[in-house]
Amino acid sequence: MNSIIIFTHDKFLTMALNGLLSGLVDTKCYSYNSIEHYLFQVEEMAPILLIVDDLLWGSLSLDICERFDSIIKRLKLKTVFLGNGKDQKPMPHMAKVIEKPTELLDLKKQILELIRSNE
Predict the structure, then answer these.
(1) Residue 101, C-beta contacts closer than 8 angstroms, at least 6 positions apart
(2) What are the structural domain ranges in the chain?
(3) CA-CA distance, 104 to 19, in Å (whole number)?
(4) Cα-flanking dihedrals φ and ψ of residue 84, to 5°?
(5) pLDDT in tens, 3-47
(6) Which residue of 1, 38, 40, 91 is 20 to 30 Å from 32, comparing CA positions?
(7) Contact, 89 vs 72, CB < 8 A?
(8) What whole-number distance in Å separates Cα of residue 116 and Cα of residue 119?
(9) What 3-state class would DSSP assign to 99?
(10) What does pTM read for this prediction?
């Protein structure tokens, strides 16, 4: 089964995305408190998609951001940012920005389109 890794700052957004995508893909969701600890899982799982909340990205140390970018480049990992993409830190290599929609179903549709485009 295809896998997606999601890192967000918002516990409710994490739970909602996990619920929306369960059964369709293997989804691993992590919050800000665990991002450094679970960074290695990105390499181990080699997911088809990495989703990162841009508010979380803005709160990470530059070292962690650089490690993320290195993993993304090495795995040629499709990466999506939820938010407006206007953070001061540079976003990872070739990241696509999806503005946070008001409807979670719209977000699910966009994520599924990205998964299909990867197959």
Answers:
(1) 107, 110
(2) 3-118
(3) 11
(4) -100, -5
(5) 888 888 777 877 888 788 877 777 777 666 667 777 777 778 878
(6) 1
(7) no
(8) 5
(9) coil
(10) 0.76
3-state secondary structure of 52: strand
Residue 112 and residue 98 in contact, taking contact as beta carbons nearer than 8 Å: no
Cα separation, 51 vs 102, in Å, equals: 17
Q: What is the pLDDT of residue 34?
A: 64
Cα separation, 81 vs 107, in Å, equals: 12
Instruction: Give the per-residue pLDDT at 54.
Output: 77
Q: What local confidence, expressed as pLDDT, does residue 88 receive?
A: 57
Residue range 3-118 forms a domain whose CATH class is alpha beta
How many whole angstroms separate alpha carbon 28 and alpha carbon 7?
Answer: 9
CA 76 to chain centre: 14
Vertex 95, ends 92 and 97: CA angle to 5°? 125
Mean of all residue pLDDT scores within the chain: 76
Q: Which residue has the tokens 């951001």?
A: 65
Instruction: For tokens 């650089």, name the residue.
Output: 66
